[in-house]
């Protein structure tokens, strides 16, 4: 048994008793189903032989009715047990996947595209559920039903008749196997092309101004026509296979009936088989069609399930790259002294260093400004301080302790971090601001929002702090988002504040006001302001100018201007840039 | 993106003959196909029906009094049953060929119809005016053109023809049954209404449950996608525990919905099979007595037990068809209401096909509102001479972009007139007007394809050299050459891999390649680094040479060299003149300028 299949079974193991019960119910159902044709055959035989009276007929009819009730009840039971378990397996797996994803670091998310991870959480989890549900059911059913039918047939009906009548049926299994594969592939293609088609409509609607401005309507229509035609062709490629299913099943099963009618009748006429046998076999044969198809389908389902398990395992096997060391130290009462010693960092060993030989020292309560162009390594520094990536041992210290040796939770608790992209979640504004492990009162939340200059914006929404953000709610402007992001960080009351280029989307006037407001907060804290704007760092106690991962200049604002170096150049350029109209 | 959000609630609609007529009108050109399909179906159904019947004939006519003692009679009977067997085989093969042909023919026809509906819909959409696109989110339009049309597929394949098949099968079985025995037929039918009813109820409940499951699943997926994106934030704020709880909630919601759906299936499926078994029991009870009384032959009873199962299948499916029909009604209503949408801006009958314009733009007492009486422009008048560069400045909502929209005639003015070269834009065909324009928008828009196709757009007259020349002229050539693949480099996700400045330069190249008489530029508000800004200014100089250029400016520093600057305030032109003249006036422009300079100083 392959490793993937074993793993699949392990996922199902917690529900083994339900599965067993389900399969038992299934077995009973299948057996009972065999009884009905047999009863019908007996009725025929008894009637023919004149052995049956009115009461006898009533008895037969009664038995059929009782069997029918039992079948219906058992079917309900196995559906609940087997399919219900499969849905629980799906639930467990998805839960485990999310829990694991929460442990993985940005390094992992850089290597794996969101789309791929989503495919894992949807398609692959679904494939496991199918294997644990339909796969188990069809597999068990196919085995039980075909064995039982075969046994009953052989004991009741002449074996020659059985052998010949069944001979075309394995073709059904082969057909089902082939059909499942080809359809899966072609259906996937159809969905892809459908996606392309949607994309054309999406694009031409979103870009309608450009389309109209350049009088491109006809060109768009031509493009759509091409995709539309391609979709039609792809769809029909699938239809060509799909159209086979019913007719071919009928034909293959029909071959069996041909054998019964010809050869079976001959045997009856020769007196070797009873007419009742023939009638019963006629019904049994119909019952073999499904298990044969099921054999084919089930192989496909299990294969897809094990492939999914394999892909999921690859993710489950990823260990988080940033985690507490076994002997991690607590970090109580942080004063806020930060020291970086000769820090060189590469995202991957085959990449050039993102930071090279960076050193600085911030005393508690001081403000450090870091400025540089895009790609100069500013954000890397911030990422290392909160240990989204681990810096090399012995390079970054808080209150004299190497951050690699302290507890992750304590470290992050000590830092209020405002990331470059203010990522907000689809929840209310209040929940976004109080995005913390603790509970907060609305007053606290409003106070933080007021400091971040976003309280009045929020109060202008009809639902205020209960306004829902995201797809099903309100879309904030870039500047509002960033300010909510700042409020969120301020909620932490942490001794260290890191602002990672978080004001890029607010206009200069708001930025100036915000920094003015934040001064009060920064006074008692160690603050690192990262920006590409001179204005944002001008008042800092110490400014580092980063270029290509290296500190090229350092000092205070006026000192740096006097040096007429990169800082001064940036300042000159940005005076022009500062003229960007803040819509007055 | 937010496609699911725009899914309308109404998914079913009662039968509407008006909509049905329009749906059928699309099918009309294909009536021979449908007819052929129905004929094939008759063949298929006949072949299917023949099987139990042939077995009945074999039993009643040849196998009765089986184990023939007389060798001659036995031989004759054997030969006869073999003849029947081969007849059966022949019918099965024929049934296969006909069945396959029918099924494929139907799909092919249906896809052709849907192809046509989609074509018509998209074509119509392309010619609708901007005011329509302002009102309708993109996701909704995508759903119309793709999903709603696809929903009709089932209508054309299942309902149009298979309805005939089901009816035909039912009628066929009934005829055969009645011919054999009327009373047994009535007994067999006893459970049919129950089957139909439970089929109908099941369809209703299961669709509801299914919708619920899908809605919950898409919530899980949205949650996951969002958290994968924002995982760093979750971790920095130590929220893993609470997010796991939140995830468990949506996951549990989904499990519950999924279990509900399972319940519905687990009840319904057994019930239907139970009903058909019950009918069989009834038949045995009643038919057995009839056989006993020698009222019917045994073969008839046996045949009836087979027919019962063939009968209940189509009865159950009739209920399903009814539901498909209701859904098709809902989809087609949305499709046709979109098709009935009238473009707000239309070419007049006998509109002028203008050639190359000189580029004199005139606003003559223009009043304009996007809706009702919310005037965005109030009595605006100005003239721009051919070849001039003019700029419009003012607050957001002052009406700057609206002026651009009116020059391109994306909307029609309510009062007054917009004239180019002295001709009212409403007198020209839209196409010939816009062939004289090039527009560079704030949010630069790139289409999927490659760089060259984005510069060329659909203008096949532009060869590669012209494309490269345009790119070189605006200074885009250098970075394009550096891209892997150069001008053939694919543009993915609207050009997300390119910087904003690069995208802007590509749009400049596009505008230059079209060599318009009038260039309309809506300056980007997003901050661009100083280096790119310089490049863009250089490019703009090249671009505006020898043509009328209208700029919506957000940075006063970029328009100092304009021939004329118009200051818009609350929908009116309050000041106009050159940069120096306006500064000297010490009015709104002067204040704007002061403010921006003040910001430079605080920096």
How is the largest sheet of chain B built, in terms of strand order? 6-9-10-3-11-12
State the shape of chain A.
Answer: elongated
Which fold name corresponds to the CATH topology of the largest domain in chain B? Answer: ABC transporter transmembrane region fold
The end-to-end span of chain B amounts to: 39 Å
Identify low-pLDDT runs of chain A: 579-584
Explain the overall architecture:
The complex is a heterodimer of chains A (584) and B (603). With 584 residues, chain A is an alpha/beta fold. In chain A, 64% of the residues lie in helices and 9% in strands. Chain A has 3 domains: 199 residues, ABC transporter transmembrane region fold (Up-down Bundle); 138 residues, Rossmann fold, CATH 3.40.50.300; 73 residues, 3-Layer(aba) Sandwich (Rossmann fold). In chain A, helix 1 packs across helix 11, helix 3 packs antiparallel against helix 5 and helix 15 packs across helix 17. Chain B is α/β, with parallel strands linked by helices and 603 residues long. Chain B has 3 domains: 198 residues, ABC transporter type 1, transmembrane domain (ABC transporter transmembrane region fold, Up-down Bundle), CATH 1.20.1560.10; 114 residues; 140 residues, Rossmann fold (3-Layer(aba) Sandwich). Helices cover 63% and strands 10% of the residues of chain B. In chain B, strands 6-9-10-3-11-12 form a 6-stranded mixed sheet, with helices on both faces. Chain B has a 4-stranded antiparallel sheet with strand order 2-1-4-5, with helices on one face. A two-stranded antiparallel ribbon of chain B has the order 7-8. In chain B, helix 2 packs antiparallel against helix 11, helix 6 packs across helix 7 and helix 6 runs antiparallel to helix 11. The longest helix of chain B is centred in the N-terminal third of the chain and has 56 residues. The two termini of chain B are 39 Å apart. At the A-B interface, helix 2, helix 3, helix 5, helix 7 and helix 8 of A face helix 2, helix 3, helix 5, helix 8 and helix 9 of B.
